[in-house]
Amino acid sequence: MSAAPETVAAARAWLAGDPDETTRAELEATIAAAEAGDGAAIAELADAFRGRLQFGTAGLRGRIAPGPNRMNRVVVQQASAGLAAFLLSREPHPSVVVGWDGRRGSERFARDTAEVLAGAGVRAILLPRLMPTPVTAFAVRHLGASAGVMVTASHNPPADNGYKVYLGGDDEGSQIVPPVDAEIAARIAEAAETPVADYPRGEPEVTGEAVWHAYVAATAAIGQPDQGVAGATSGPRVVYTPLHGVGLETVEAVLAEAGFPPVIPVPEQSEPDGAFPTVDFPNPEEPGALDLAMALGTAEQADLIIANDPDADRLAVAVPDASAPMGWRMLTGNEVGLLLGWDAARTARGQGVLAASIVSSPGLGAIARAHGLEFVQTLTGFKWVSRVPGLVYGYEEALGYLVNPGTVRDKDGISALVRLLTLASDLHERGSSLGEELLALAGEFGAFASGQVSVRVSDLARIPAIMAALRAAPPAELAGSRVLAADDLALPEHGSIGDILRFTLDDGSRVMVRPSGTEPKVKVYIDTSSTDGAPAARVRAARERVAAIAEAVRPLLA
């Protein structure tokens, strides 16, 4: 067994143009091992050089390693040259804000991005230090930039990094959507024909702290409602973790300016660390990610645990629950989404739109109807939620919330934290809690429960195989309920929404199956509801139904 000669030739050509010592050394070692017959090295070379890392509506995201199918300095510079060409084809003097988080390679990738943009004749505005993703999204609008680039892989595994693109102007700082992604990808392919060493480079502008302070002020302002909850010297006792990410400094500044009591940080996870040493995956949804926060919450007799993911665009919440394994129950993304949706609806005064992705809870629709608001379901991905006209609040079940569309057009875990604490503080002053408020919502609107089943794969070919098998032989029943409809949302009659399967059961439950857009997973979303009995009984019945359907779904993903 040996590496294909054309693959080795491509790898050696890449090696000659790679400006990074680390990835050059890694590639040299892989080539040598592959030529010696090492199977793992042969497979790595074949995958790293089988094509380009695809630029899509999530920008770029992948493992940091050499080769065109990986994240590295060559791919980042090619992407930046392609983005520059795209922007210059649209306007004569474009500008781009560039930010980065605390992941491995993020700062170097950001500086390469800004220097290549500047060399191409684009005004490149580099943020002064690592910051949360929402600050970059805010800066695009605040500075009136043509576009923004955020170097982050959000909550992906530690080996990954990414390149996220926003557009200004009529796009108002939202993430890119088709056909722009394809147009930029075509420009990147053209740029890749020139060695990166031949790209002109320029010196970018480096902003001061004014942008960060403006974001802090704008975000703190949404925690100062008419009822004057913020500014109180007492409130719920809160443990906070940024999961080794960049959230803590900004969260503390925003809460101080809004007048909230300080949070209690998890010391082992407070500083940015791209190795994420205390978690297997830096995603607050993953089992074990909040164990340290829960232990500290118990020791500190906290009322609430709040977490951001490493780039602080997502928000996770846990509440005390004596029946849970560590005494804390993490609220689902839909539970937080409905709490924040109810909060937004009651202050909207009948004006505006509530929106959620199609795989998020239908409960937001019930809340919108009760408050005389329009409810819109969007395609999956926050790039669609953020673009809904008249939006006052939007969310997706994967812990993404947009509570201040007037200033940020992307999910923002820090502004969502502020609104959640405003709500929690109000309830605390009234002797109540978020858990009790969820029961009250169940009494008013019915109980909506949700759950997920996901399968992580090492062989990406398994994902289309699983989806094809479900399309070919959809289940006739799940957990004792007949499947009334099995809809393929990729088909024109169902809106050509994407690679999503929807199963509607005769008890009103809904099951959605789709590949993850950012991770090697197939995800199943389960939504149930109940309006029978007292609120606690409704919640219990809906959760039991979710659990039963989840058990019935798992064998379908094998």
UniProtKB/TrEMBL annotation:
User: Does the keyword section mention Transmembrane?
Assistant: no
Indicate the segments forming the Alpha-D-phosphohexomutase C-terminal domain, all copies.
455-532
Q: Which domain of life is it from?
A: Bacteria
Q: Which GO terms describe its molecular function?
A: magnesium ion binding; phosphopentomutase activity
Q: Does the keyword RNA-binding apply?
A: no
Q: Which GO terms describe its biological process?
A: carbohydrate metabolic process; purine ribonucleoside salvage
Q: Which Gene3D superfamilies match?
A: Alpha-D-Glucose-1,6-Bisphosphate, subunit A, domain 3 (3.40.120.10), Alpha-D-phosphohexomutase, C-terminal domain (3.30.310.50)
Signal peptide interval: none
Describe the location of the Alpha-D-phosphohexomutase alpha/beta/alpha domain by residue ranges. 53-193, 232-318, 333-436
The coenzyme or cofactor needed here is: Mg(2+)
Query: What UniProt keywords are attached to this protein's entry?
Result: Isomerase, Magnesium, Metal-binding, Phosphoprotein
Similarity comment text for this entry: Belongs to the phosphohexose mutase family.
The record's PANTHER family line, in alphabetical order, gives:
PHOSPHOGLUCOMUTASE 2B-RELATED (PTHR45745:SF1), PHOSPHOMANNOMUTASE 45A (PTHR45745)
* Protein's recorded name: Phospho-sugar mutase
The organism of origin for this protein = Agrococcus sediminis
